[in-house]
Amino acid sequence: MKILKHLPFLLLLPTLFGQPIRLLADDIQVAVAANFSAPMELIATEFEKATSHRALLTFGSTGKFYTQIQHGAPFEILLAADARTPEKLVAEGAALADSRFTYAIGRLVLWSLNPDLVDAQGAILAEGGFKHLAIASPRLAPYGAAAIETLTRLGLLEMVRSRFVQGENISQTYQFVASGNAELGFVAKSQVYTAGKLNKGSGWLVPAELHNPIRQDAVLLNRGKDNPAAASLMKYLTSDSARAVIEAYGYALPPVSPR
After folding, report:
1. Residue 5 within any structural domain of the chain
2. pLDDT tens, residue by residue, 103-154
3. For residue 29, what are the domain limits?
4. What DSSP designation does 6 have?
5. In angstroms, how far is the first alpha carbon of the chain from the final one?
6. Are 86 and 78 in contact (CB under 8 A)?
7. How confident is residue 48, by pLDDT bands cut at 50, 70 and 90?
8. In contact, 214 and 67? CB cutoff 8 Å
9. How many angstroms from the chain centroid is the CA of residue 50?
10. Quick one: which of 5, 83, 174, 232 has the most CB atoms within 10 Å?
């Protein structure tokens, strides 16, 4: 009888004050490499539908996240744009060694908003018919480091260095080109390809052998080790649903190892 007496109030709880109450669910603070912004937003939405857990996403450069984590930033998971940063965090005792895995392998694209500027071999780099070349900071962003490696192997680095417009991360680098402030730039394939095709402008998909693999690793940070929702998200990233999203955004998929 007591339960029935209070039933109307209990039924109101889920929408009390106009806000749904998330029962038996937790939030996860996730640092996400800028290149992975769009796929991770979709993955986070699907993850919340599947589990009721909410991933709170912060996007930025992997190098900057590393510094912030060292200084106590409240992140529980890092989705890096490289493998080296998670490895360093594990070695320094800031992340769990057995949690690290590769969630995606990135591809680099030389891209221009001008549909006639970049051909399928990237010949524009040697021809020099441009004033500005956007790249992400090679110190902070692995895609920027891959761009430098590519130019070095092509023997063009010193020729084009004076034309660099440098972004802090790959999102800012993309904006330089998309806004027309740079005629072309090295961006992530995930930013300019849809369903396997360049969605606008012109581009050269940089051959993978011109730079070290852009292996992107995830790692569970110490702050997340006691949060079941963080472990759940790490597992979800290897699910068929998440991998389908990752592949759709132009990444190569690593083999799935048992978790």
Report:
1. no
2. 999 999 999 999 999 999 999 999 999 999 999 999 988 899 999 999 999 9
3. 24-105+213-248
4. T
5. 47
6. yes
7. very high
8. no
9. 21
10. 174
